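Let us practice reading a record.
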Amino acid sequence: MGWSNIYWDGLGVDLATLIEREQLVQEMTSRYSDAKPKTILNWVSQVWPFANAMQKGDWIVLPSKSQPVVNIGEITGEYEFVLSGPDPFFHRRAVKWIAEDVPRSHFGQDLLYSFGAFMTICRIKRNNAEERLKAMAANGWAAEQTAAVIGTKHDTTDDEAAETDNVDLEELAQDHISRFIEARFKGHNLTRLVEAILNAKGYATYMSPEGADGGADILAGNGPMGFGEQRICVEVKSESTPVGREVADKLLGAVDKFRASQGLLVSWGGFKSNVQKELVGSFFKLRLWSRKELLEELFAHYDELEDNLKAELPLKRVWTIALQEET
């Protein structure tokens, strides 16, 4: 059991006391006098449903911003206003988390398209979303089958239009690239991609052959021929599920074994929630790359990759408008 909160600076008003939506418009207009009317309406469209539209038994979808995973919860309580706050922690609902750390790759691209909406709260209705999530739950949150992704055509509602209008194009593009990498760089091939990125960053490397690696998939060193002061042991996990603390501890042991100075743990599926918190004491000895960090490094050093690898992973830069919230 836990809580789902909506954080809004300065909104210390009990939403349950507002009978009409227009009252929230007036309240926000008064509190945020510098905001444009369109911005106020956008905010109201997020805050009002949290207190008035969501019902006990409804499911909520919370994509992680730091890991390639999605969390699913069921609302179990009514809206509550916490006067003591502190600001901005005024508004909450009780939630039972029924699925945590479900890999993004298990969901159809059309669902991820909706999950990536810029609005922090919106109702997801497109393409039989609710029925498909229920089916995934019944199947232990295994990846959707292709047939399930094909939705029935129907008229688009206002909520559904908001999903399309507010999509995060950058996240959508990263999902497409991620699926391509998962298809083309499975297993040991992901290690090959990580090695190529390290080479592009200026490291000399040794990659262990596929199979038993003695505790490190890649050994990397800086300086001429890799004989510099920075010596890195790299472990690469290509699975789509988050890894736990035991994998990090094993890599730290390999750092000592190979007399390296640091370790790099790359996990395509991300890390369990306790890993980063528990490893703060190893900050100067260990770095963690989830899919997010790996893609950032790939984009930053793509031009320096070998031509044969770029042929396997063809990417091009696309410019788009950087949408900013109106103020």
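A brief commentary: Strands lie at 2-6, 59-63, 69-75, 80-81, 91-103, 204-207, 218-221, 231-237, 262-267, 286-289.
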